[in-house]
Amino acid sequence: MADDKTETALDVVGVGNAIVDVLAEVDEGFIDEHGLARGAMTLIDNERAIELYAAMPPGLEESGGSAANTMVGVASFGGRAAYIGKVADDFLGEVFRRDLRHVGVGFDMPGAVGGDPTARCLIQVTPDAQRTLNTYLGVSSHLSASEIDGDLVASAAHLYCEGYLWDTEEAKGAIRRAMDFANAAGRTVSLTLSDGFCVDRHRDEWLDLLTDRVNVVFGNASELCSLFEVHEVDQAADAVASEVDLAFVTLGKQGSMVVSGSDRIRIEADELEAVVDTTGAGDLYAAGVLFGLSQGADLPHAARLGSIAAAEVISHLGARPGRLLSAVAASILG
After folding, report:
1. Strand ordering across the sheet containing 41-43
2. Which homologous superfamily is 10-17+64-116+139-333 in?
3. Distance between CA 203 and CA 190 in Å, rounded?
4. Can you give the residue ranges of every domain in the chain?
5. Is 107 helix (H, G, I), strand (E, B) or coil?
6. What is the pLDDT of residues 286-326, one digit of tens each?
7. pLDDT tens per residue, range 30-47
8. Rounded CA gap, 204 and 191, in Å?
9. What confidence tier does 327 reach under pLDDT thresholds 50, 70, 90?
């Protein structure tokens, strides 16, 4: 794994699906009425996206995408972040670009002309704060290896790759290319498992990535157990420890666990008066961890930053921090 103290221009570069999020609070009946897979991320076509958008009540619209949320979190902590993802030369594409730049995340890819529109994710939040995601990938899934900026990847201490992007051959080639650039430059490569359904679709390919391209894995307990086809998180921890340097496993109300060789470091979750929306919890946890690692923090302090960021984002609607996290960083890292 790379030495985080090596001089770099950036702390983290993220690669993922560039998506505009549409979030709305709905009741349980909405999920049943529209035949949605509760609590999961489902890929849909443009026609279904138009239908669901029309049925949803008014809500919040903002740029999103898992890895983009993580880069926004890194920037909120005061870190130096950039993003690689594909948008169209359309209104939503410009919204996405403007949002990232506004919060200090570098994003310089031009919008694609013609073809599919910019991606959007329709997110239904039920009263228990669970989120159901229905995603039209649009042009985002056509990110290609030729569009990966090798100099940009090599300029960052960490490369963070989104599992959600691993659904087309073009995008797979892009992720592999980015990982190869990072490895050649001696940088750290992270993969987030994203979703249980993603794990089921891509298990064998991801296990291959862990063998020769990935240093760090992010995921929740269910995703990690599914990856190694075991029932207990301790079994999954043992399995992932034999493949990568580090794994950060979120455990819901039980906090998180850091897996480093034979070490298992438990981090308690932050206490909250109410959980409003769990969208982005894993994304912001990864942001805190990556920022901490980039600053040379030890594993418990990096994971603690992740817990604080996750707690902040689930305390309100939306997948981005509602306040700057830089003050939190100062209190934890000194």
Report:
1. 41-43, 131-136, 119-125, 19-25, 60-64
2. Ribokinase (3.40.1190.20)
3. 16
4. 10-17+64-116+139-333
5. coil
6. 999 999 999 999 999 999 999 999 988 887 776 678 788 88
7. 999 999 999 888 989 999
8. 14
9. confident
